[in-house]
Amino acid sequence: MKFKVTNWAEYEAGLRRRGSLTLWVTPEALAGWAAPRRKTRGGQPLYSDLAIETTLMLGMVFGLRLRQSEGLLSSVLDMMGLDLPVPDHTTLSRRARTWKPSARGNDRQHVADGPVHVLVDSTGLKIYGAGQWLEEKHGTKSRRGWRKLHLAVDADSGEIIAHSLTDQETGDAMQLEPLLDQIDDEIGQFTADGAYDGNPTYDAVLRHSPGAKFVIPPRSNAVERPTAQACCQRDDHVASMQIDGRLKWQASTGYGKRALAETAMGKYKGIIGPRLRARSFPAQQTEAAIGVAILNRMLACGHPKSVRCQASAGATK
To answer: How far apart are CA 33 and CA 4, in angstroms?
Structure first.
């Protein structure tokens, strides 16, 4: 199969904008840079969550540690002639554990006109600990663990519309409810791999969107259960696979679009990185959330529109 990008000029310009060093600060950001005064006992915070988010986001985009992120933002504000305090690295480390996304962080770049086609999958992110080389060389037990990043992707725009970060023991289907809680739009189709096959997945999606269509491959030994009302679509998939086979079922249902979720995970690991830098779990959740926001911001710069090329006459013979 061959595909052709129909908006190459626009997409190429968007790729160049991703590397632009042009920065600006809006009047709303200037007004919200300082933290609002608290009315409870304790010290007053100096920086708002927006200031913490800005510093952490710049550091993640350029692959910098906390001290270097502090220095980068200081130099940028000096060149812009803005008299704003910059969070120090200790404040960034502490506030990352309690950071809450701003209201504008929940706004989608691409607003859907109707029901959305949601793709769900998960991937592993490394955390600190002994590396694989040390384990293989010296035969030591590795203390390195993993975190699981769960993503929900809009199949039409490629935007990540929901995410969550859990430990490595959490099952994929167990995080479906938190992902659905982040999606306000009606779900027209829900596509996932076989790890999400089961009544809990069907029930959770139908509670969110009663008219949702499912494209989830049943297990190889699955059988029809006519008495299960919530999983009637699953029975249709089982019957279709028994008659036509799995490959024809994938082609007829459009299951291949699930690869876009894996593409989003590949972009996260390629641009943000395959490992988490933060040590505490709350700070790791903040790191993952800001990484997702960075990918969506880059996607807004330019999105490729690819179409499948028609096979030539010689290739079909």
So the answer is: 44
Query: What does the alpha-carbon distance between residue 67 and residue 222 come to, in Å, rounded to a whole number?
Result: 54
Single-letter amino acid code for the residue at 200: P
- Please state, in angstroms and rounded to a whole number, the distance separating the CA atoms of residues 208 and 178: 12
Helix (H, G, I), strand (E, B) or coil at 243: helix
Distances in whole angstroms, Cα of residue 303 to Cα of each of 109, 290, 292, 298: 11, 20, 16, 9
Neighbouring CB atoms inside 10 A of 277's CB total 15
The gap between the terminal CA atoms of the chain, to the nearest Å, is 15
Rounded Cα distance between 184 and 151, Å, is: 15
**Coil vs helix vs strand at 166:** strand
- Region for 158 from its dihedrals, namely left if φ exceeds 0, alpha if ψ lies in -120 to 50, beta otherwise: left
Reported confidence tier of residue 88, pLDDT bands at 50, 70, 90: very high
Q: Are 299 and 11 in contact (CB under 8 A)?
A: no
Q: Per-residue DSSP letters for 77-142?
A: HHHHT-------HHHHHHHTTT----GGGGS-SS--SS-EEEEEEEEEEE-SS--HHHHHHH-PPP
Give CA–CA dist 264/149, Å, rounded.
11
> Scanning the structure block, which residue is given the tokens 């024809």?
248
Name the phi and psi angles at 150, rounded to 5.
Answer: -100, 130
Q: b vs e for 164-189, b when ≥16 Cβ sit within 10 Å of the residue's Cβ?
A: bbbeeeeebbebbeebbeebebebbb
Torsion region of 79: left, alpha or beta (phi above 0 gives left; psi -120 to 50 gives alpha): alpha
- What pLDDT is attached to residue 317? 46
Name which of 144, 153, 97, 131 is nearest 286 in CA terms.
Answer: 97
- At 104-119, the pLDDT tens digits run 444 566 666 789 999 9
pTM of the model: 0.85
